[in-house]
Amino acid sequence: xxxxxxxxxxxRIPTSSMAxxxxxxxxxxxxxxxxxxxxxxxITLPRSIAGEKIPREKIAHIWIDRTGVLSIDDMVISVPDxxxxxxxxxxxxxxVIIAFNSDESAPYRIVNEAMERLKLANALRIAFTTVPVxx
Amino acid sequence: xxKFRKRSRITADMVGESSxxxxxxxxxxxxxxxxxxxxxxxxxxxxxxxGDVQQVKxxxxxxxxxxxxxxxxxxxxxxxTLLSELRGIVRQRLMDNENLILSLETHPDAPxxxxxxxxxxxxxAYDELSAANITREHRISLKMLETE
Lengths: 135, 148
Known about the structure:
The structure holds two protein chains of two kinds. Chain A is built from four helices and eight strands. Chain A is of the alpha/beta class. The termini of chain A are far apart. The mean pLDDT of chain A is 84. By secondary structure, chain B is α/β, with parallel strands linked by helices. Chain B has a domain at 59-144: Nucleotidyltransferase, domain 5 (2-Layer Sandwich). Chain B has helices at 2-14, 20-34, 83-96, 112-131, and strands at residues 39-45, 61-66, 72-74, 101-106, 140-144. In chain B, helix 3 crosses helix 4. Chain B is elongated. The chains are: A alpha/beta, B alpha/beta. Strand 2 of chain A pairs antiparallel with strand 1 (39-45) of chain B, so a sheet runs across the interface.
């Protein structure tokens, strides 16, 4: 009996500090994580009431700022570059929806040119990203 | 009764309360990771470049012209139409003509937001019709005005 008691008291791992270790790890990873900033250009999206939800996994963005600067995948590009980039995206995901994240005061000309390039690349599913407004 | 009470207390002891917070955190982290906020937008299908050009009757086309200033003109009107009036007019025209094609024609220098506002109103007109059980195929065409 005495022997058993000794063995029982010897093998004890303190579990009360486990949570502290877990928190330490969480804090460590929170501090060291760097989020990829996907925000391409500084824009003010137009508002819409009829906006629908667009499945996020199908979206590829084209950014257009108020001066007409174009950007895809954090790269500032010119209009003719749209076609090869979009073709590559179509190869990866044939159902891709090209979302126009365009500033509300961007000239329509540049949006139209981008759409013409998408037609050439045969990327026909698009969406105009907007900020929802309540009815 | 006494026996039952004893038994239930034993089972309550067996569920470790100390690990409850771990479970809660696990769920919290799971939902943080898996949540993605939906993106809102106006979807559109572009006509394919290879597609043959269709001829349509002029009567079946309603032009909504967005001028450089952002003002809206319907067909060949000389007086601008207010954005708030647009939806009602489009809805009426859609009710009258089931083959109506809405042609949104925008000046190259017009702000993109003005075109989107018009597109929004047109979409809402379609929505209001379908809410009233009048089905109309979405026929919207986007076009840029040609200027010299």
